[in-house]
């Protein structure tokens, strides 16, 4: 996908019940996203993408592909987040919904001023935690099975 209108009317929402949405170019949308049972995967495919609308539902979100996925919505999804590749930018205190973030390497980046209460599980010694600029707070517990390396 290379443009928001490739998904139909820009005013419409986007729903996942499993499956992958792959970005073919840089992309930003304010669409609402629902993660149903089975969740959904976003493959940034070497591009930078922004989901600024609210993400809700019981499913989880998986981020794959090189590039950055920025989450700016006041999200409420409950299934947790898995970061497999690339960078995940947390641009809102509720960017991760209500579940834990599990990393398999890659970069977790915090926008300035955010406070993230979600727990983070680091499953790779290649995980990097960074603040994009300014300051941020990780209020949720950080546990590790492989370690983390701050930038």
What is the tally of beta strands? 17
- What is the percentage of strand-forming residues? 35-45%
Distance between the termini: 32 Å
Average of the residue pLDDT scores:
91
Structural domain tally = 1
Overall, the morphology is globular
Helix content, binned percent = under 10%
- The SSE string, one letter per element, is EEEEEEEEEEEEEEEEE
Oligomer: single chain
Radius of gyration: 14 Å
- Catalogue the unreliable spans: none
Biggest sheet layout:
12 strands, parallel
Structural class: mainly beta
Number of helices: 0
Notes on the protein architecture:
The structure is a single chain. By secondary structure, the protein is an all-beta fold. It has one domain (15-148). The protein has no helices and 17 strands.
Which key terms come to mind for this protein?
mainly beta; globular; 0% helix; 17 strands; three-stranded parallel sheet
Briefly summarize what is shown.
With 151 residues, the protein is mostly beta strands. It contains no helices and 17 strands. The strands form 3 sheets. Strands 2, 3, 5, 6, 8, 9, 10, 11, 12, 13, 15 and 17 form a 12-stranded parallel beta sheet that branches. Strands 1-4-7 form a 3-stranded parallel beta sheet, with no helix packed on it. Strands 14-16 form a two-stranded parallel ribbon.
